[in-house]
Design a protein that fits this description.
Layout: E1 8-9, E2 20-21, E3 27-29, E4 37-39, E5 47-48, E6 53-56, E7 62-67, E8 72-73, E9 78-87, E10 100-107, E11 142-149, E12 158-159, E13 164-165, E14 177-181, E15 184-185, E16 188-189, E17 192-197, E18 204-207, E19 214-215, E20 251-262, E21 265-276, E22 279-290, E23 292-300, E24 306-314, E25 318-326, E26 333-342, E27 352-358, E28 363-366, E29 394-405, E30 408-411, E31 417-419, E32 423-428, E33 433-438, E34 446-455, E35 459-460, E36 463-464, E37 475-483, E38 490-491, E39 494-495
Parallel strand pairs: 27-37
Antiparallel strand pairs: 1-2, 3-26, 4-7, 5-6, 6-26, 7-25, 8-25, 9-20, 9-26, 10-11, 10-25, 11-14, 12-13, 14-17, 15-16, 17-18, 18-19, 20-21, 21-22, 23-24, 28-33, 29-30, 29-34, 31-32, 32-33, 34-37, 35-36, 38-39
Length: 496
């Protein structure tokens, strides 16, 4: 599919509110084809062989791709979901694979973005050296990276004879970490904001951006706890390469960069959720990412020398998004697929299931019973998104049915009407209810259609929360036909 996707603030003039090119959102990409992807400069080959984007396949690779036609207005934030898989041969007796992969966010004005450093750099941060000709620049104009570090050294203060980088001093290599690095350019910045183990919830570090020191005692990200691995497959094979929801190797990440403020400073709260198998865990919770102002961290000056540094954060006006991965002598296959992107404060919709629908009579139900809309675009730290919205903010007249054709959900020609082999669905925009009328003699045991919806119009700054770019994701309506309603005869108000 070839779609020019751009959510772009075209002008900072008085007319800026009217100069937006709206995207077809939510945005989806299976990553089964190179279409819509660009290759970072200095990247090796990324393969597309029917299982997703294979970022690495062998030893000593530093590869990455970005969504070349997708430009995001940074102040709106984003919610990005993707499946990943770490699998295949390349492990040792101790390590089943290396190094890891990263979601990277960078300045969209960078015309020729270049990938960052190898191995523990995960293609995002830099590598300093005793000689500038051996130094490797960080990812061009990087703003944020969320790294999934199986090997365990991307968070660490790198100290080698020929290579050094800022980071955390730890007691030995700690594997299976989700590591967040911040803004940087060329050979400075990219500080570690936070690193969280997924095997040991109590093993975590967070940068105090005022002192440059790392905290280890702060609130756990998920009160119910978690313990899993970034890679499930312990064998040197790819038997799990098609792992889907419920499979032990299944991993899906949702990264939410939510516009907000803290102590009158604008920025974002970052949440990272990982589904492992069939369970979802919050591994990063309400980490504040400033969009402006100074932060303090320790920058390297030599192999062993550090200096306390003040770095000026300046969030770009527009973002682009990419994926990077690295391997060393120990390696593995890193696969990314099923990318999904939406804007925060688009309506949150949930599937609706009617477990006792009539086979021979109309069935009426509330299609929006589990859905909420929004009239704000600012997140409140620590709150569930649902609690910031309400059903009253949904634009009932923006409802759109979809049906499945050739494994794709397609909008119906009439937005309020959907027809399947089982019958006809008709939506009432005054009530939000749907009436299903089965075909005569219908024998199906179940049926399914889909829907999406928008918020009511609400302009906040230059953003219309009721615009098409804030359309919800797709939710399902499923009917289970268990009743022959006309078999129940009502006589004088009684049934028998």
């Amino acid at each position: 599919m070839k779609k020019k996707i751009c959510i772009l603030l075209c002008s900072l003039t008085f007319f800026s509110a009217f100069n937006l090119v709206h995207a077809q959102l939510p945005y989806t990409n299976t990553a089964f084809s190179i279409d819509e992807f660009g290759l970072f400069l200095s990247s090796g080959e990324v393969k597309f062989q029917g299982k997703g984007a294979e970022l690495t396949t062998k030893a000593n690779e530093t590869n990455g791709i970005f969504l070349s036609d997708l430009v995001l207005v940074s102040e709106r934030g984003f919610i990005l979901g993707f499946d990943y898989l770490m699998t295949g041969s390349g492990g040792s007796m101790v390590d089943k694979g290396a190094n890891g992969l990263a979601l990277v966010v960078f300045d969209a004005t960078e015309v020729n973005p270049t990938i960052g450093s190898k191995t523990s750099g995960l293609g995002y941060s830099y590598s300093q050296s005793y000689s500038s000709k051996f130094s490797v620049l960080g990812l061009s104009k990087g703003f944020l990276s969320v790294g999934f570090d199986l090997y365990g050294d991307s968070k660490e203060r790198l100290t080698l004879d020929h290579e050094f980088r800022n980071g955390i001093y730890t007691q030995g290599r700690q594997q299976n970490h989700v590591t967040v690095r911040g803004q940087g350019n060329r050979l400075e910045g990219y500080p570690v904001y936070l690193s969280q183990s997924v095997t040991n919830i109590n093993e975590r570090y967070k940068l105090n951006i005022e002192t440059g020191e790392y905290l280890t005692a702060f609130e756990a990200p998920d009160p119910k706890g978690f313990s899993f691995k970034l890679r499930e497959n312990n064998a040197n094979n790819e038997v799990d390469s098609n792992a889907g929801f419920g499979h032990p190797s299944y991993r899906r990440v949702v990264v939410s960069l939510l516009p907000s403020s803290k102590l009158r400073e604008n920025g974002f709260y970052l949440n990272v959720d990982i589904t492992h198998g069939s369970e979802t865990s919050r591994v990063v919770n309400s980490l504040f990412i400033p969009s402006k102002g100074n932060i303090t961290y320790k920058e390297v000056r030599s192999t062993t020398g550090d200096v306390l540094k003040t770095y000026r954060i300046n969030c770009p006006t527009q973002f682009k998004i990419g994926f990077t991965a690295t391997t060393g002598a120990i390696y593995q296959k890193h696969i990314v697929r099923n990318i999904y992107l939406s804007l925060p404060f688009a309506p949150l919709v949930k599937d609706v299931r009617v477990s006792a629908a009539c086979k021979d009579h109309t069935t009426t139900f509330d299609a929006l019973i589990n859905s909420v809309g929004f009239d704000t675009n600012k997140y409140v730290s620590g709150q569930q998104m649902e609690s910031l919205g309400g059903k009253e903010h949904l634009d009932l007249y923006s409802f759109q049915f979809l049906t499945q054709i050739d494994n794709k959900q397609i909008n119906t020609l009439e937005p309020y009407v959907a027809t399947t082999a089982a019958g006809r669905y008709e939506y009432n925009p005054k009530t939000g209810e749907v009436v299903f009328t089965p075909v005569k003699g219908m024998l199906a045991t179940s049926d399914k259609v889909y829907f999406s919806i928008k918020n009511k119009k609400k302009v906040v700054g230059t953003t219309n929360l009721g615009g098409e770019q804030y359309r919800s994701e797709i939710a399902a309506i499923e009917l289970d036909f268990t009743l022959n309603c006309n078999d129940v005869l009502m006589v004088n108000g009684g049934a028998f």
